[in-house]
Specification:
With about 450 residues, this protein is α/β, with parallel strands linked by helices. It contains 13 helices and 15 strands. The chain has two domains: about 10-90 and about 350-455, Alpha-Beta Complex (Aspartate Aminotransferase, domain 1), CATH 3.90.1150; about 90-350, Aspartate Aminotransferase, domain 2, CATH 3.40.640.10. The chain binds pyridoxal-5'-phosphate (PLP).
């Protein structure tokens, strides 16, 4: 057999946008092949790794995932805000395929290549602010956050990092310290990194309706009193919190923090790992209030599903690190960079910021109608294609994680993938692929409504 005839060891079904865009249940959930895989998994995969769905995926594309038993799911999760351009998106497949055939890895620190430079150029062009920028590429979101902290400390000569209640920044040792929630992220994994200080977040539904300015003033007073401005390298914040429950700070909160940081030589790091790349209807969520961060971390939606992350920021900050101080074996791997080039082209050519705004127009009235009919819905919030409902005990603001799980499970039984979130586990969050066909999105909402009706 000639080397060009080498075939994959398992048959690979074809996904991508040509998959039938339909919800289709043809077996019990999970079907027999998924049950078989679950049994193999139990003996092979650490119990510390869990999955939302009980089924195993064979293909994905557009707004659907197809499982190994042939069931076709409506995907309202995008692999946690990753496949915004759709699974196996055409341009991503083309770029990645060509790159895989050319070369798969050299290590940018050893033998550089154009894809890395091109991705950095795109990031510098697309992220907020007209100033001169530089980028560095890594593998995961947590790794980007870790490097943003390293860069901020090197550039300022200060060590303290200020983070916020309900924040999520990753699961490595430093990012566990930055992340707020104990279970499941931190429990039994300490001790954690030092010089991390947590202050209050603007959370209009749960902070007594303080204005953004009031909430910022309170956070600033804490920083001044408990840390001291001259010790603070950076404020690190998600412009809309992701795992924390899609908490949208009150208007004015982010601009007030940005002004404060600027006045005191503190760097503002926007963690846009979940909010970035058109998800919220802007390319980056900071743009909604005209906030220009000094550093921005990106990952998730950056590369159509390939593992890639980045730190982008002011040239003088990014270049303050000594040569060789940043890197990693795989950071900015050429195949992942090819994925990013395909994803960024798709975002721009298909106006996916416009699609995200359209998804909000379609979903928001339906979610608000749910809130009117069901006392269990405490609040509907979010922006663009990053929307959520927070569930409470009717008539109170007591978190209701049981109802949240029940609704999610009922959706899963009907072939609609929804995710949960929130410090109290009581938020249903929706992150559809931005390319989801509208009829499919509407059908997903029908199933969600039915799930709420079954709550009784
Ligand atoms: C997912 C996420 C991270 C961590 O990214 P990983 O790729 O899982 O390490 C960090 N910050 C935010 C806001 C995230 O949503």
């Amino acid at each position: 057999m000639a080397s060009t005839d080498i075939v994959p060891t398992t048959a690979h079904p074809v996904g991508g946008p040509s998959l039938p865009q339909e919800r289709r249940l043809v077996t019990a959930i999970p079907g027999p092949r998924s049950v078989e895989l679950a049994a193999r998994r139990a003996h092979a995969v650490s119990a510390g790794v869990s999955s939302t769905l009980p089924v195993y995926v064979a293909a994905g594309g557009g707004g659907v995932l197809v499982d190994v038993d042939g069931n076709s799911w409506i995907d309202l999760g995008s692999g946690i805000a990753v496949t915004s351009v759709g699974n196996a998106a055409e341009a991503v497949v083309a770029e990645v395929g060509a790159q895989v055939q050319a070369f798969t890895h050299t290590c940018f620190m050893v033998a550089p290549y154009e894809g890395y430079v091109a991705v950095a150029e795109h990031l510098n062009r697309l992220t907020p602010g007209q100033h001169e920028k530089r980028s560095a590429l890594f593998n995961s979101g947590a790794e980007a956050v870790e490097n943003a902290v390293k860069i901020a400390r090197a550039a300022t000569g200060r060590s303290a990092i200020v983070v916020f209640e309900h924040a999520y920044h990753g699961r490595t040792n430093l990012t566990m310290a930055l992340t707020a929630k104990n279970m499941p992220y931190k429990q039994s994994f300490g001790p954690f990194a030092g010089e991390v200080y947590r202050v209050g977040m603007s959370y209009p539904y749960r902070d007594g309706g303080r204005t953004g300015e009031q909430a910022a003033a309170e956070a600033i007073r804490r920083i001044h009193t408990e840390v001291g401005e001259s010790n603070v390298a950076a404020l690190l914040i998600e412009p809309i919190q992701g795992e924390g429950g899609f908490v949208v700070p009150a208007p004015g909160f982010l601009p007030a923090l940005a002004r404060y940081a600027h006045t005191h030589g503190i760097l503002l790091i926007a963690d846009e790992i979940q909010t970035g790349f058109a998800r919220t209807g802007d390319l980056f969520a900071c743009q909604h209030e005209g906030v220009v961060p000094d550093l921005i971390t990106t990952a998730k939606g950056i590369a159509g599903g390939l593992p890639l992350s980045a730190v982008t920021g002011r040239a003088e900050v990014m270049d303050a690190v000594h040569p060789g101080g940043l890197g990693g074996t795989y950071g900015g791997n050429p195949v992942a960079c090819a994925g990013a080039l395909g994803a960024i082209r798709t975002l721009e050519e298909q106006d996916l910021t416009g699609r995200a705004r359209r998804i909000e127009q379609v979903m928001l009235p339906r979610l608000q109608a749910l809130a009117e009919r069901h006392g269990v819905v405490g609040e509907v919030r979010g922006r663009g294609a990053m929307l959520a409902v927070e569930l409470v005990e009717p008539g109170t603001r007591e978190p209701n994680p049981a109802a949240t799980t029940a609704v999610a499970t009922a959706c899963h039984a009907e072939g609609v993938l929804v995710l949960t979130a929130g410090s109290y586990g009581n938020v249903l969050r929706f992150l559809p692929p931005l390319v989801i066909p509208e009829p499919l999105l509407l059908e997903g909402l029908d199933v969600l409504e039915k799930a709420f009706s079954q709550l009784g």
